[in-house]
Amino acid sequence: MTELYLKYEYWIAFTQLLLAMFGMGATLRVVDFINVARTPRAFATGISLQLLMVPLIAVLFLAIFNLQPGVAVGIAILAAIPGGTTSNIYTHFARGNIALSIAITAVTTVACLVTVPIILKLLITDYVPADFRLPAARIAAEIFFSILGPLALGMLTLRLLPTLSAQIAKWSIRASLALIIVIILGASTSGRLDWAAFGLGNVLVVTGFTISLLAAGLVVPWLMRAPRPDIVAIDMELTVRNVNLAVLIIASLFPAANAATSTLGSMALFTVLVYGGWMLMPALVLIIASRVHKKSGDALAEGDE
User: Fold this and answer.
1) In which band, very low, low, confident or very high, does the pLDDT at 300 lie, cut at 50, 70 and 90?
2) Are 45 and 220 in contact (CB under 8 A)?
3) Does 304 map to a domain?
4) What angle do CA 124, 126, 132 make, to 5 degrees?
5) Cα–Cα distance list, 195 to 29, 47, 203, 211 (Å)
6) Do the domain assignments include residue 67?
7) Is 297 exposed, middle or buried (0-12, 13-18, 19+ CB in 10 A)?
8) How far apart are CA 89 and CA 44, in angstroms?
9) What is the maximum span of the chain, computed from C-alpha positions, in angstroms?
10) Which DSSP category does 84 fall into?
11) Number of structural domains in the chain
């Protein structure tokens, strides 16, 4: 299994992301993009935090901590990618503004065709070998074929097969989750994931990065007096990132089969997967807090009666 994973790591990651984005597209309509106009201030806040605040937080972490190159690259990649496809689901469970969440996810996903290569070029230059050249055009092409193409095809499927699209989306996303398990198992057996090499200190750094994104997503919209559903949606978008895309970028730039950069790629992959686990915790906290908030509101309403 190890040799097969090393040989096909990139294509497994590519297929996993393609299925995830196709499944997401099968739940989206053009009107979901149009809904942006209904909450322009909240949308502008969410986009600004995604494209400016998150990379700035990453820059601060890279400047403050003396990080190993692979960990620094992993954090840079996390800062460059847009929000994840599951942020919309978590926003729903946390009683947030679902239309706003979908709009931010959709627009930042389209925008990442341009933003990801730019942010990566700015952040990882000091942490890669001197002869490394970031293939910006290739990254843009991979994003187009693995994200934008499947997303558009999924939306077309919803339009042409509305009665089947829900099942198609469900099974596409389930298949993508199965491939995530394959990636984790393959990376573990091939030596890509080594807890001893990663160390507790790096786990704490990734934890701090997760908490920082959570705090930014809560505090900034709150200071702007955004309603609670908008704050929840924006915070989910910042915290729940597209780890699928991060895995693909790492498999593309630092494949396990390339001995020159495999160690760096392994540390970056571990960083991304640790973040992928931690980002579920803030989402769970928001969901529980929203449920408690609703029960408190219902109790007060009953008391007034």
Assistant:
1) very low
2) yes
3) no
4) 75
5) 42, 35, 9, 21
6) yes
7) exposed
8) 21
9) 72
10) -
11) 1
Give 209-223 pLDDT, tens digit per residue.
999 999 999 999 999
Query: Using one digit for the tens of pLDDT, what is the confidence trace for 87-121?
Result: 777 787 788 887 788 788 878 888 888 888 899 98
Q: Which CATH number covers residue 48?
A: 1.20.1530.20
* Tokens (6 digits) for 174: 């389930």
b/e for 249-288, b at 16 or more Cβ within 10 A?
Answer: bbbbbbbbeeeebbbbbbbbbbbbbbbbebbeebbeebbe
Distance CA 169, CA 173 (A): 6
Kindly write down the DSSP assignment for every residue of 18-69, as one continuous string: HHHHHHHHTT--HHHHHGGGGSHHHHHHHHHIIIIIHHHHHHHHHHHS---H
Q: For residue 201, give the 3-state DSSP assignment.
A: helix
In a domain, residue 95? The reply is yes
- Answer yes or no: is 269 within a domain: yes
Q: Is the dihedral of CA 55, 61, 63, 67 positive or negative?
A: negative
Are 248 and 13 contacting, i.e. CB atoms less than 8 angstroms apart? yes
In whole angstroms, how far apart are CA 232 and each of 135, 149, 154? Answer: 36, 29, 26
